[in-house]
Structures are given as C-alpha cells and as structure tokens.
Amino acid sequence: MIKKIAVLISSFAIALVAIAVPVLAGALVVTQTTDGVTLLNALVPNQSQFSSIGATYTYGDPAQIGTYTGFTSPPVATGDGIVLSTGNAVDVVGPSPDLSNSGLPSTAFYTGGSTASSGGSTPEIDAYANTHVTGWTASFDAAVLTVNFTLANPSAISFNFVFGSVEYPVWVNLYADATYAFLDGQQIIFDSTGNAVQVGTSFSNLLTTADTNTAFAGFHGLIGPLTTTSGTLAAGPHTLQFEIADTNDPILDSAVFLSNFHTTTNSGGPITTEDVPEPGSLPLLGAGLLAFGFMRRRKKLG
User: Fold this and answer.
1) For residues 302 and 3, what is the distance between their CA atoms, to the nearest angstrom?
2) 130, 268 in Cβ contact below 8 A?
3) What are the residue ranges of helices labelled H in the chain?
4) What percent of the chain lies above the pLDDT cut of 90?
5) Which domain holds residue 142?
6) How many CB atoms lie within 10 A of CB 123?
C-alpha cells in the first residue's frame, strides 16, 4: 500500500508540473496508425525501386506506431516518415516544457512520455541485446514494423533515423533503451561509432539536447539524423524488421523516427552509418540529478 501511495504522489507531482509549465506547439505532427499501406507510403518514397514491397505492424500496442510530418525545426531536421515508440507515439511531439521558471530545482527533469503498454520483448532482441546493449537484462514494450521487399537486381538498402529518449540524462547505461533493425535476421542499425543504438554509448558520442521538434529536448536528448546503408543484397526477397524496446523496465519512453527507405549502392563495406553534422549541443546536465533516484525507484514496476 505504501508503494502504491508513493507512485500516486509522484504521478500527481509530475502532472502538476505539466499543467503549470506551458508547452509551445511545434510543427511536428504524429498520426497514430497501424495501416500497412499508410506506413509504407510514409517510409518508402520511391516504391518503384522494388519488385514488390509491403509493410506490416507485427508486434506492439497500436498506440506505439504512427506516421509523422514536420520534423523541420532547426537545429535538427529529418524527412517525413514513421515513428516507433516504447510508449504512445503521439507523445513524442515537443518541445518539452521549459522548467527554468517553474520554481523546481535546477536538476528537475520532465518525465512526460512514460507509459507501460504491457508488451514484452522479441526473440531477436533478446538474442542480440544480451551482449550489445549496456547493462541489458530484459526488454519491454517492444514495437516492430516488418517490411518485406523483393529486389530485381543486387542492391544495398538505406534509411535515415533519429533516436531519442527521456531516459537521458539520469538513467544512462542503467536503462539503456535501444532501437534495432534486423535485415534477414542480422542486426544492421548502429550509431556512427559502430555501437548498437542505445541510451548511453550512443548518446555519449552523438548527443544533442537542442532539438526543438520533439519531447527529447532540453532536459532530455536524441541522436541523429543518421543514415544506415546495408551491404549489397542478392536479388530476390528480403525481410527488414524495425524494432524498439525499453530496457530493464517498461517506463520512461524512447522513440525512433525512420524515413527515406530506398535502394542504393554501397562500395564502402558491408554496413555503413553516416553522421549528419549538427550544430553544437547544449552542455550536459550535471550534479544533483541522482536526487531524483527515489522517484524512479518508486515508479519502477514489479
């Protein structure tokens, strides 16, 4: 009973902060949908490059996926596409509230976008994350978009992505939410340093907190835009599974924005990830953040 009361008190306090601090509407628009044709049209601008192609939302709560437009406000911008989230996809729209005049301690952080959809993991995440995601013991709230496509001729495939999380800055490497892309069973999405895309190592090298489009701004952070290109694939059918999941607990959410899935050539190696240079990010938040540890521990489920 004491634990339940603590959770209610913490949730009420967060709700008061959200009400008290105005949030400016941005240009980013997210539309929740699981319709395969709609998702395919948003993700693949030139479907004529493929002999056949289709998309299916194969795992996760319907609220965890949608299309997005208007990710155009500087300093971070990317093309229209789809968003996969470990929470409600529509909650990724930002910016986060500015808490500077809220009367809260300077180390306060906005915990919006924290939901548990009661979803689990996937076999491919479990097999890969065990040795590639920092501190991983289990995944929750996975969402999976499966793209089946056929190539008429040998070709590489490529796509752009942005990954953000409200796990940053307090829970870096403790709850390292991650995103994945399994091409014919092989994980191919990495950050530009060759690591799995996760809260922690990826954020240490590529972080920006200056985004004005999403909820992963200000007190939180994101990486990207980045472009992943596969090695040359044989002509014929292939399957690509875009996946995202919470790590070690089902709260404090993350999201991946995916766009411009297309065929291309890759003469530089089996898999490449290119970093799009971004303006200088804001300084990382510092001392005192662990004072909020009690809130996370009380909110943790089970």
Assistant:
1) 11
2) no
3) 2-20, 36-43, 123-132, 201-206, 293-299
4) 59
5) 2-299
6) 7
